[in-house]
Design a protein that fits this description.
23% helix, single chain, alpha+beta, 3-stranded antiparallel β-sheet
């Protein structure tokens, strides 16, 4: 039997208040991760990459566009902020872009801007071995990067964990000017990254499929930029070539349908997250942050 549903609360930075998250597929997620039959189904079928790829293709079909209008209405999507359609499929709607000027990246070189519009946890210093204290569980940075030696470069460094809900803008960006040192993929499952799923599977961020980029930035030293796939994410698309340099605010890529996560790791002593994000993290709440606004500062 499912436990009584509890709303996922987050701090809305722009509005200065605690809000409750509108969860896409809430009943389905709870049935999947809060019941024994659902957990079995999640582990042995739905978290397999094949399921998400097939589901992703369905969201790319012409028929899928029929649910766009109801999705907009149900989740109160502010379409005046986005470029207009028509959208050929739900996936085309899902990766919609902001209109020019709606979101701007802070250009002060000492300020670390939000690379994604998402709900953030922030940590000043995280041990590579102990890992990320998410919801009372510890997730290994070494496991996240799938590389012990590389993880040591970020030992005791700052971490930003940005969770994108299905209702959010699903493109992710570079936080500074720089170059790509290395880029690689790590295979894995595709569980949901929703807090409902994290209660059941505390290791999702280090066992889900993910893509890792090691970046050398002009203002913040070396950072590890990790995109984590999730249940029903058809694909993680990198729109920027790793052979080319990048500029602050430039698009790095996007997620096709599904909620997803971006994790940013920094070297110790280079930069620190903003204090308001840290305080909300201590309180156990994520902070909803607009793309391009301050999430950290150079030390």
């Amino acid at each position: 039997m499912m436990a009584e549903s509890q709303a996922i609360q987050f701090w809305n930075r722009k509005k200065g208040r605690i809000d409750a998250e509108a969860v896409y597929g809430d009943f389905f997620l709870r049935a999947l991760y809060e019941t024994l039959p659902g957990q079995f189904l999640a582990d042995h079928l739905l978290s397999k990459p094949l399921f998400s790829k097939v589901y992703g293709r369905m969201q790319g079909s012409a028929l899928s566009r029929l649910k766009i209008s109801s999705f907009i209405e149900k989740f109160d999507i502010p379409m005046e902020e986005f470029e207009e359609g028509p959208f050929s499929s739900f996936n085309q709607f899902f990766i919609r872009q902001f209109k020019p000027g709606v979101r701007n990246f802070v250009m002060d070189s000492a300020t670390f801007p939000a690379p994604a519009e998402a709900r953030y946890f922030a940590y000043k210093a995280v041990s590579a071995k102990q890992g990320l204290p998410v919801k009372g569980r510890f997730l290994s940075i070494e496991g996240l990067l799938d590389n012990e030696m590389l993880a040591q470069e970020f030992d005791q460094g700052p971490v930003l964990l940005a969770r994108l809900c299905p209702v959010d803008y699903h493109r992710f960006h570079f936080p500074d000017d720089g170059t790509v040192i290395r880029q690689y993929s790590v295979g894995g499952a595709l569980h949901s990254v929703n807090p409902v799923a994290l209660k059941y599977h505390s290791d999702i961020l280090v066992t889900n499929e993910r893509q890792v980029s090691i970046l050398e930035t002009s203002s913040f030293g070396k950072i590890a930029y990790v995109e984590v796939g999730a249940l029903c994410v058809g694909k993680i698309i990198q729109t920027h070539s790793p052979d080319e340099g990048f500029k602050r605010g430039a698009e790095k890529g996007y997620f096709l349908f599904g909620g997803s996560t971006v994790v940013v790791l920094g070297q110790p002593g280079k930069w620190a997250p903003e204090e308001d994000l840290i305080q909300q993290t201590i309180a156990g709440r994520e902070t909803l942050v607009e793309l391009g606004t301050a999430v950290g500062h150079r030390i």
